[in-house]
Structure formats: structure tokens, C-alpha cells
Amino acid sequence: MSDLPYRPNVGAVLFNAEGLILVARRADMPNAEGAPGGWQLPQGGMDEGEDPRTAVLRELAEEIGTDRAEIIAEHPDWFTYDLPPELIGKALKGKYRGQRQKWFALRFMGVDADIRLDLDPHPEFDAWRWVPLAELPSLAVPFKRAIYEALARDFAGL
């Protein structure tokens, strides 16, 4: 596992006008209503040489169908996580041991109808909802929980 690199990645904590954040249900876990990891934040890989701020808006457009957002904060740290052993060689196309992530807080500038999961022919998500930021850690799979705890703590003042 240690021979594999980390995949460069960006993530979005998207706040609506009421201060709730968007989480989306993974399309490959449609029956995971209450299961950790069934719901997650939008995130995705960075293209080679791509600026993280550009990448996070691109990922929003690709994953939730809109980039109607403005960046309001950038987490100062890059986070890494390792995949659990049973996912090595399977998840992330088998090419990575985990991900190295830069996270952003964004303000949603659109309306709920702008969120369109149906625009991608192979969507990552099949449902979405707004939740309180404090609920975020309880939604995470164990190997991402420390990151979601840090985001909930560090973006709480937004």
C-alpha cells in the first residue's frame, strides 16, 4: 500500500442561506439512508496543474450540476486519508492508497432547483439534502471521520 500515491483532491462544504450544508447520497449506496458514508460532501480529483480553487468549482458543477457558489474560506491544511485494506486496488481505480485533500467552504448563490444530479450520465450521487454542519462527522465512513470532524470544527464560525 505504501508504494501507491495519494490522489490530489478538493472538497466542498457548501453552505446555503440558512447556514446548512449540502450532503449528497452516493449512487452506489442507495439503501444507505443512515449508514456512515452513504452521505458525503462533494469532492473530486484535481487535474494535473489545476489550481485547487478552480478545481473545487469544477467539481461542484460536475457532481451537483451547478457552480453557483463563491469561496468564503479555504482550510489552511491539506488532509490525507488512507483507504482501508479491503478497498486498496479497488477504490479510486486501484491507483491510489487514499487521497490528499484541500477543503473549501463555499456560499451557495443559487436556488435549490440549480442543484441537478441528473446532468451527469453516470452520476456519483442520487439524492441530496441540507443538514447542520455539526451533523457532518456522523455521516462519515470511519476512515474519513477525522477530516469531517476537523471541517465541522474549523468551519463552524461560518
From TrEMBL:
Requisite cofactors: Mn(2+); a divalent metal cation; Mg(2+)
Q: Which Pfam families match?
A: NUDIX
Query: Which domain of life does this protein belong to?
Result: Bacteria
Motif window: Nudix box = 44-65
GO BP term, example? nucleoside phosphate metabolic process
Q: Where is the Nudix hydrolase domain?
A: 5-153
Keywords, comma-separated and alphabetical:
Hydrolase
Recorded hits in InterPro entries, A to Z, give: Nudix_hydrolase (IPR020476), NUDIX_hydrolase-like_dom_sf (IPR015797), NUDIX_hydrolase_CS (IPR020084), NUDIX_hydrolase_dom (IPR000086), RppH (IPR022927)
Any idea of its EC number? 3.6.1.-
| Coiled-coil region(s) | none
Which Gene3D superfamilies did the record assign?
A: Nucleoside Triphosphate Pyrophosphohydrolase (3.90.79.10)
Task: List, in alphabetical order, the Gene Ontology terms for molecular function in this entry.
Answer: bis(5'-adenosyl)-pentaphosphatase activity; guanosine-3',5'-bis(diphosphate) 3'-diphosphatase activity
Q: Which HAMAP family did the record assign? A: Nudix_RppH
Q: What does this protein do?
A: Accelerates the degradation of transcripts by removing pyrophosphate from the 5'-end of triphosphorylated RNA, leading to a more labile monophosphorylated state that can stimulate subsequent ribonuclease cleavage.
State the family it belongs to. Belongs to the Nudix hydrolase family. RppH subfamily.
The name this protein goes by in its record: RNA pyrophosphohydrolase
Gene encoding the protein: rppH
